[in-house]
């Protein structure tokens, strides 16, 4: 299994796919150096690689793409500056469809994905993070039961549950502001190789392990 992780950041998605396909050859590409990315990586513009249709067909069996999310984020909507960030999803979709390969596009809620499945940390035993992410794919992804969200550890004394939760065991917030130690953020995400900034940008590997296992089932049926 040859997998390309486009816009890979520090590799949260890649590790999930590796757990689903333990013998996979995974390569990441990102515009910025990612010294803790756990697989071979090419530093460069992922959009340029995604435009190389014939190369992708020859070189990979599956492509995951996580285009920059700032254009679609709640923060950009609140600040009214979404247009300062690139809107890459429509072009990424066209480029991935042109390859004819299985693909996934991952992004935040509000992103213009087609019939996406939403995943949340509450759906995976062991995770302690509320991080909704959308996954569009050209193969079926099994939706998972999504129950009520638990309270999240907070340092905000205005919150009614301030002082009632232990950040070592409760759900925590993993964002730029944050409300927990880096160690607790890492434990909440199921990630042990990233720094705080990288965690803020990451998705839990459990999400893409689930997506990869769905792809594996689809491939087994088609074989």
Largest sheet: 7 strands, mixed
Uncertain stretches: none
Q: Give the strand line-up of the largest sheet.
A: 3-2-1-4-5-7-6
Rg result: 18 Å
DSSP helix fraction: 25-40%
Q: Would you tell me which CATH topology applies?
A: Rossmann fold
Number of domains as seen in the coordinates: 1
Overall geometry: globular
Detailed description of the structure:
The chain is of the alpha/beta class. It has one domain: Rossmann fold (3-Layer(aba) Sandwich), CATH 3.40.50.150. It contains 8 helices and 7 strands. The protein has helices spanning 12-20, 46-50, 53-59, 74-79, 89-99, 182-189, 196-201, 205-222, and strands at 2-6, 25-30, 41-43, 62-65, 103-107, 117-119, 133-137. Strand 1 (2-6), helix 1 and strand 2 form a beta-alpha-beta unit.
What characteristics describe this protein?
alpha/beta, 14% strand, Rossmann fold, 223 residues, seven-stranded mixed β-sheet
Task: Give me a quick take on this structure.
Helices cover 31% and strands 14% of the residues. With 223 residues, the protein is α/β, with parallel strands linked by helices. The model has no long low-confidence stretch (mean pLDDT 92).
Task: List strands and helices in order, with pairings.
Layout: E1 2-6, H1 12-20, E2 25-30, E3 41-43, H2 46-50, H3 53-59, E4 62-65, H4 74-79, H5 89-99, E5 103-107, E6 117-119, E7 133-137, H6 182-189, H7 196-201, H8 205-222
Parallel strand pairs: 1-2, 1-4, 2-3, 4-5
Antiparallel strand pairs: 5-7, 6-7
Helix pairs in contact: 1-8, 3-5
């Amino acid at each position: 299994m040859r997998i390309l992780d486009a816009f890979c950041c520090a590799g949260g998605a890649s590790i999930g796919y590796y757990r689903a396909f333990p013998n996979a050859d995974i390569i990441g590409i990102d515009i910025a150096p990612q010294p803790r990315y756990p697989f071979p990586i090419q530093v460069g513009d992922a959009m340029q690689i995604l435009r190389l249709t014939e190369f992708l067909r020859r070189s990979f069996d599956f492509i995951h793409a996580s285009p920059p999310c700032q254009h679609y984020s709640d923060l950009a909507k609140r600040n009214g500056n979404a247009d300062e960030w690139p809107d890459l999803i429509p072009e990424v979709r066209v480029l991935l469809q042109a390859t004819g390969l299985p693909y996934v596009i991952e992004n935040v809620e509000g992103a213009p994905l087609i019939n996406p499945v939403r995943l949340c940390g509450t759906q995976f035993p062991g995770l302690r993070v509320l991080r909704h992410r959308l996954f569009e794919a050209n193969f079926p992804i099994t939706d998972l039961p999504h129950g009520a969200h638990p309270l999240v550890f907070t340092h905000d004394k205005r919150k009614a549950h301030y002082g009632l939760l232990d950040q070592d065991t409760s759900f925590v917030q993993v964002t730029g502001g944050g409300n927990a130690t880096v160690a607790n953020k890492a434990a909440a995400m199921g990630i042990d190789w990233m720094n705080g900034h990288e965690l803020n940008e990451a998705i839990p590997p459990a999400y893409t392990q689930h997506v990869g296992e769905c792809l594996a089932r689809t491939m087994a049926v088609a074989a």
